[in-house]
Amino acid sequence: MRKAVRMSVHLRRLLCDPLGSSSIETSLALLLALPFTFAAFQLCLYAYAQSVLSDSVRVGVRYAIVHGSDSAACSGPSAGCSDSSAANVISTVQNNAGRYLNILKAVNVTVLYPDASSAPPSRVVVTATYRYLPIVSSSSMAYSMYATAGGRIVF
Known about the structure:
This protein has helices at about 1-15, 20-65, 85-100; strands spanning about 110, 125-130, 145-150. By secondary structure, the chain is α+β, with helices and mostly antiparallel strands. The protein has a three-stranded antiparallel β-sheet, with helices on one face. Helix 2 runs antiparallel to helix 3 (about 85-100). It is rod-shaped.
């Protein structure tokens, strides 16, 4: 019984002592601050990935508009083009995205020629999709990113 009384007195003294309160407050603050910091970091990574995807699509459109049927390295559906499937445009988009994100094969690229020609001033539309996975994730947490750009063929 004396031992129990002595332990309760010792416990009461520890609970009333202000020296340990700062470490408890710090640990509670960190429990709240760390998830918010991690979420802000994750949001920045998402915005960066979207920006890289958009820029990569724009690079693909630039490639397509200068490689029309008047170009020596023609890409598009016009007769005489060595790259009628626009594989060079697709690889340009994937290489540009892979340079910044290490997602070379994960980007799905679609190249459309609405005017069914790659002769100037025909239109070209490049669309890319990417399945973004957060750092700490499961497959149910994947987000689909889309980027589309268009232009008119110049050469």
